[in-house]
Amino acid sequence: DGGITQSPKYLFRKEGQNVTLSCEQNLNHDAMYWYRQDPGQGLRLIYYSQIVNDFQKGDIAEGYSVSREKKESFPLTVTSAQKNPTAFYLCASRMDRAYPYEQYFGPGTRLTVT
Amino acid sequence: GQQVMQIPQYQHVQEGEDFTTYCNSSTTLSNIQWYKQRPGGHPVFLIQLVKSGEVKKQKRLTFQFGEAKKNSSLHITATQTTDVGTYFCAGGSSAGGTSYGKLTFGQGTILTVHP
Q1: A94, B42: Cβ pair inside 8 Å?
Q2: Nearest by CB to A31, which of B9, B41, B100?
Q3: What is the pLDDT of residues B28-81, one digit of tens each?
Q4: Which of A3, A49, A66, B42 is 20 to 30 A distant from B82 in Cα terms?
């Protein structure tokens, strides 16, 4: 059963702690993306990666870090430097050279930091 | 940077009424995609428009891409309760020669359908 897995679904952390969100895909997609969703603000791009060992900052990368050591995996670390980390985080992937280049989203992780 | 504005933020309709959401970009887009997110779910791809003035239909849904490739709309005819959710437009730009499939999402329109 192909798809994108994000775990956990809900995550609670204390302020000042780093936390890593998991994103795995078995779709053999080349590109992967991390978005943050807040009420009334749509989806904002945090980081994206087109190939292994390469990634680019999105529009709101401050306070976040990523790695892409394997094609299937693109974990996101929310660091203590992120001023307002409580949000719904969505991971997505896309197959290059496969029109219409749609993005497939995982189920998301809802992070609450108190 | 590129900005994509979407209106309205909320729309409440009676079942059977029509619904339209509009999307405007600050820059010319190479393509625009539309996604639907059901309550509690994740965005799911609906369609992509690429050509200037393009119109595509999916059953009761009609998607348009403006002549200048800076605006788009989604129109739903005779809404049903299954149409409930948030509709997002997402603009793609090939500025700089490469985009890595990067999309800029609008804020979304939350559609509520009253039976």
Answers
A1: no
A2: B100
A3: 999 999 999 999 999 999 999 999 999 999 999 999 999 999 999 999 999 999
A4: A3
Q: Do B107 and A104 lie within an 8 Å CB cutoff?
A: no
Q: Which residue numbers of B have CB closer than 8 Å to A's CBs?
A: 1, 6, 9, 31, 33, 41-45, 47-48, 50, 88, 90, 92, 100-108
The full DSSP string for B78-110 is S--GGG-EEEEEEEE--GGG--TT-EEE---EE
Paired with B86 in beta bridges are B37, B110
CB B115 within 8 A of CB B30: no
Supply angle C-alpha A99, A24, A50, rounded to 5: 45
Alpha carbon distances (Å) from A68 to A25, A32, A71, B20, B42: 12, 9, 7, 39, 23
Tokens 């050591």 -> residue: A69
Distance CA A36, CA A43 (A): 6
Taking residue B6's Cβ as centre, other Cβ atoms within 10 Å add up to: 21
Interchain contact A68–B (C-beta under 8 A): no
* Whether A35 contacts A89, CB under 8 Å: yes
State in Å, rounded, how far the first CA of chain B is from the last one.
41
Whole-number Cα distances in Å, B38 to A10, A89, B42: 18, 16, 7
